[in-house]
UniProtKB/TrEMBL annotation, chain A:
The keyword Protein transport does not apply. Gene3D superfamilies: P-loop containing nucleotide triphosphate hydrolases (3.40.50.300). Pfam families: ABC_tran (PF00005). One of its GO terms (molecular function) is ATP binding. Residues 21-252 form the ABC transporter domain. InterPro entries: AAA+_ATPase, ABC_transporter-like_ATP-bd, ABC_transporter-like_CS, ABC_transporter_ATP-bind, P-loop_NTPase. This is NitT/TauT family transport system ATP-binding protein. Belongs to the ABC transporter superfamily. Keywords: ATP-binding, Nucleotide-binding, Transport. It comes from Roseicyclus mahoneyensis. SUPFAM superfamilies: P-loop containing nucleoside triphosphate hydrolases (SSF52540).
From TrEMBL, chain B:
Residues 85-269 form the ABC transmembrane type-1 domain. This is NitT/TauT family transport system permease protein. Keywords: Cell membrane, Membrane, Transmembrane, Transmembrane helix, Transport. GO terms for biological process: transmembrane transport. It comes from the Bacteria. The lineage of its organism: Bacteria, Pseudomonadati, Pseudomonadota, Alphaproteobacteria, Rhodobacterales. It is a multi-pass membrane protein.
Amino acid sequence: MPVETRQLKSVPAASQTRPVYQIARLSKTYARNQLVALSDVHLTINKGEFVSVVGSSGCGKSTLLKIMAGLMPPTTGRVVLEGEPVVGPRRDIGMMFQQATLLPWKTTIENILLPIEMRDGRAAARDARDRAMDLLTLVGLGDFANVYPGELSGGMAQRASICRMLVSDPAMLLLDEPFSALDELTRDFMNMELQRICSERHATAFLVTHSLAEAVFLSDRILVMKARPGRIVEDIRIDLPRPRTLEMINTPEFGEIVAHIRDLLGREAYS
Amino acid sequence: MTDATQQDTDTDADTIWVEHEALIDRIPRWVAMTLLFIVVVGIWDLATRLEWVSRIILPTPGETLDDLIFVGRNLASGGYMLEALWTTTRTVFYAFAIAIGIGFSLGVLVGETKFGERAVMPYLVAIDTMPKVAFAPLFIAWLGFDIASKVALAAFIATFPIVVATAAGLYAASENERMLFKSIGATRMQTLVRLKLPNGLPYIFTGLKIAAVGVMAGAITGEFLGGGSGFGALIRQSASQLDTPRVFSLILYLSLLGLALYFMVVFLQRRLVFWNKSQTPGGIG
Ligand SMILES: Nc1ncnc2c1ncn2[C@@H]1O[C@H](COP(=O)(O)OP(=O)(O)OP(=O)(O)O)[C@@H](O)[C@H]1O
Ligand SMILES: [Mg+2]
C-alpha cells in the first residue's frame, strides 16, 4: 500500500527532479527471532532531496537504513540506487551510525581517513589528509586531529564520525540519529552545516531522528513510521523556503508543522 | 574552587574536601615490598632456628643466601650452571616462539573461519582438557633426551592458551565496528587485519602471559623427566642429594628467567596496546 504524499500547503510539485533511490515491497524479518522489522515499505527519494524518518523506538528505522546502505539483505523487495540494485556496501553511499564507533588505536584524523584507506590504500589516504583536516576544522575539531578517541567526548566523537562519512564525498548520505549525543547549540550548528553541505554538494540525504524540530528544519519530506510491523504511514512534505535559518524555528509556521507531526505520532502511538 | 556558589561561604576556598586514605593504602610500593619480605624471611628464620622443621627439609635463610652467592658466582664465571641455564633459556624461547606461531595460526583459523570454529575447536578443547604433562614420555620417545623433546612439551603446553585467546580476541569486535567496516567497503582480510586483530590484542596478550608461565613449567617438567643438561636436571640432581639450599637457589635463579619472559610480554603489550591501559593490581600484567 503506497503512502500518499500529504501536502501541508499547496505548492508547485518539485520540478526537474529524478528519483535516485527506489524502494519497493521491502520487508525484513529477522531470522533469529522471527521478528517482522519492516513490512511492505515503498519509498522513492529524489535527487537532492532531504528526507527524514521519525517514529517510535524499535519501529525499524535503523533496519531500513541498514538495508538501504547494503549492509544487510532484505527478506523481500528491492532497493535501487541510481538505477542499480543495492546488493552490498557502495562507494556512493556515506553512512553514519547511531554510535560514533571510532577505533581507539587510531588518531582522530586516521579514523576519518579510514574509508579512503580501505578502498584506495594508504597513499590515497595521505593525499586526502588536507581535506580531512578541513572537515575537522569545519566541525570544530581542528585541534584534536592527532588525539586518540579516548580523549574525545561523546559529542566530539560523533562530529568526527560525520567527517569520516563526508571524506569520501558520497552523493547519498544515510544518517542514523547522528546528532543525538550533541548539546542543543552544537546540534543547531551541525544542522546548519549539514544543510549547507547537502546543498553545496547536491547530496541526497536520508536522516533518522527523534527530534521533530530537527526533522522539520532539515527536511523536504518527513516519513512517519509505525511499529510492529515497521512501515511508513505518512509522507509529509515540508515547504519552508530554503535555505532554512535558525530564526525560522521560532516562527508560528514552523511550530505548526512540528505540532502537526507530533499529533500524528501521538495518534499512531495511542491508536 | 572559584565557583559562583562559593560567594556566601567564608571557609578557606582552596581545600573543601580531601579524600583520606587509610594508612595501609598509603605505603609506597618499595616500602610495602620490603616490609613483606622482612616478615616472611623472619618467620622462615624463626622456623629453622627453633627447629620447627628439620634443617634437611628447610635450610636457614643464611645457608640459602650463601648458596645463592655460590651459584651466582658459578653463573657469573661461566661455569657449568651457566651452561645449564643457557640450555633451559634456549628451550623456553624456542618453545615460546613455536607456541606463538602455531597458537596464533590456529587461533585465527578458529576465530575467523566457520570451519575452524566447527571442526578444529572441539578437538582443541578435547586435547586441552587432558593433563598435557602426560604426553612427556611420548615426546621423549619420539625426540630423544636432547633439547627437542623439552621444547616440544613446553610448546605443546603453551599453545592452547594462545589459541583460545586469539580466537576470543577476534570475536571481540563489536557489531557496530563490523558494520562500520562493512559500510566502508573493507574486505574480509582488511577487517581481520585492521579491525579484529588490533581489537583482540588485549585478549591475545592475556593468552601470551598464561603461555609464558606454561612454557616455563613445560620446559622444567621436560628436564625433570627427560634428563639432559638444563636447569631442571640440576634441580632434580640436587634434590636427590638432599641439597635443599641448592634447590632453593636454583629455583630463585630460574624464576628470574620466568620473570624476564613475562615482562618481555608485558613490555610488548604496553607498546602495542597503548590505548587500553588494563587495570591490573600493581600495574604488572
Ligand atoms: N540484529 C537483530 N536481530 C533481531 N532483531 C533485531 C535486530 N536488530 C533489530 N531488531 C529488532 O527489529 C526492530 C527494529 O529495530 P531497529 O533497530 O530498526 O529500530 P529503530 O527504529 O532504529 O529504533 P531506535 O529508534 O531505538 O534506534 C526492533 O524490534 C528490534 O528488536
Ligand atoms: Mg535505531
